[in-house]
Amino acid sequence: MPTATRNRFRVAPGFATLLLIAAVLVGCARPAPAPTQVAVVATEIATEAPTQAPPTATAIPPTSTPKPTETLAPTDTPAPTATATATEAPTAVVSIDATHCIDCHTNQEILQQLAREETPAEKLSEGEG
Amino acid sequence: MPPAEAWQKVFVDATKYIENDPHAKVATCIQCHGGVGETADMATAHQGVVTDPTSSKELTSKTCGACHAAITTAQLTSLHFDSHGYDTIMGQRLNPAMADAWEEAKTNHCSACHTTCGQCHVSQPTSVGGGLISGHQFKSVQAFTRTCTGCHGSRINNEYTGRNEGIPADAHWTKAGMACFKCHTGESLHGVTGEQTERYDGKPEPACLDCHPDSAAGKGEIMQHNLHGDRLACQVCHSVENKSCYGCHVQKNEAGTPFYKIEPAEMAFKIGLNPKQSEDRPWDYVVLRHAPTDPTNFDFYGKDLLSNFDALPTWKYATPHNIQRITPQNETCNGCHGNAEIFLSAADLRPYEIEANQSVIPEKIPPAMPQ
């Protein structure tokens, strides 16, 4: 066996051992730390949609909105009265159909029958205005 | 103002408005005026109706402003809309401790004299009884006899159309039949050209020289124009006797109805020193007209309301609307020179206004010219 070939076989077992150790070390190691990836995502969001709330906002526990006490609850949110309901209801269903307005206001005879001259209050004033 | 029958004031012309006016295509009656649809009962139908949906800034912005935004925005700060010129002028005479009393008086007696989009383009002004002019047809310019002169009547209209006995009408009317808007442009009337604190704030709008540039000193061949230069306002030579008013006193009756009593007006022609001299209005001499003010105008609302009465002259800067080419004062040199009669003097003043007018009384008048 030539000398060069012998040397090659002598080196090969050592290199294989090193590869094996490296493979074991890699396999036992912890995965790459997550914060790096999160930071990238946060940056992308901030660049593309600046008006959105930062992602961390959702992580804030709802400590700033305490539960209303029993004492406050009835005072702050009174039950709607019958009057309030009656006032709001017509607004919601009001019609903009002006057919009747037009029928009447374009009819000279009807208007002449209904017309009433008001007495001007200006009679009290004296002299040129 | 021509009288209108009660029914005419609310009559909507089906042809002019409903069928042909573009405003009828973009909104129903109820969308602008409120009220209740789908009922034939008159009282119910009129619940919540707003006669003039341009009577407040909020409503105007929603109605006219929806399509005519720029001009509406300007209009809402114009003198025509809120009459803030009253505050500018009376505010200077006002007792600062009585601002509330002034507000009450102004609301009762002065604020009716404002106008809105609708009260020029659709109806007569409310202050003269209101009423639709052309069957609710919107017009960029309605007849000035149904709009402008409703408010600017006793002085401007009477002067312009020659209704003061013995005083000729304005040459712009008799010779050219020019309506108000020929000189007073829409931009100016709507305040598009800039906010004004009062009528004569800023440069003249309109200015005589806009149409008569050759009348400026050094620009034409008329010797008198070149001689007098910028020392005389045009009206000094070209207007005639005009109406001065005195002592308008306001009050309310037992029922709370506001009313006024004003002394008889007087016709006069008086030249005085320019109370508003500026780069825009450089003249030394202008025509003055007596404003209907005296220290007791608002006594009903507070005895000392005009405690700073002397702050402004009662003979105010004026631009009478009775322009003539030839007038008594320009017919000959001595129609003006040496003619003390036409210059304001202490003899023209009432005791309460002597101090207020010191700044507008010329110390000496131009001497008579040799014949």
What features would you describe in this structure?
The complex is a heterodimer of chains A (129) and B (371). Chain A is mostly helical and 129 residues long. Chain A has helices spanning 3-28, 34-48, 72-76, 82-93, 99-105, 108-114. Chain A has a domain at 1-49. Chain A is built from six helices and no strands. The radius of gyration of chain A is 44 Å and the shape is elongated. Chain B is 28% helix and 8% strand. Chain B has helices spanning 6-9, 14-19, 23-26, 29-33, 42-45, 57-62, 69-75, 79-82, 85-93, 99-109, 118-121, 148-151, 153-160, 171-174, 180-183, 186-189, 208-211, 223-228, 234-238, and strands spanning 242-244, 248-252, 258-262, 266-268, 270-273, 285-290, 315-318. Chain B has a three-stranded antiparallel β-sheet with strand order 5-6-7. In chain B, β2 (248-252) and β3 (258-262) form a beta hairpin. The model of chain B has no long low-confidence stretch (mean pLDDT 95). Classes of the chains: A mainly alpha (129), B alpha+beta (371). The interface between A and B is medium-sized, with 30 and 35 residues.
